[in-house]
Amino acid sequence: MVSPELLDATFAALADPTRRAILARLAVGEATVTELAAPFEMSQPAISKHLKVLERAGLVSRGRDAQRRPCRLEARPLREATAWLAGYRDYWAESYKRLDGLLDELQAVDKRDAAPSGAGE
Known about the structure:
Layout: H1 4-14, H2 17-28, H3 33-37, H4 44-56, E1 60-62, E2 71-73, H5 76-114
Antiparallel strand pairs: 1-2
Helix pairs in contact: 1-4, 1-5
């Protein structure tokens, strides 16, 4: 069972495109705040604020490597969010299956109505 608080924090963190871009960068490997800030037109303190949101959601952790404090991706909350969404994927799969059945029925009716009269009698 996914904790509602963790799920809320995960989706709130993912709601921002900068934070999603930071996670994508960290999926490639660890990076410092300076390295994470490089592709953005924003200050390092602004990137640090985004990192704090990601840390609160458990999506990012910071280590220590001599003088560096590299950030790393923590994917567990993403796996839990994906598991939560999977229930809705099943709902939509069943809805599409019913829609396909209805379309098949409508196409069969159209073919029957379009057939010349007397055909098949």
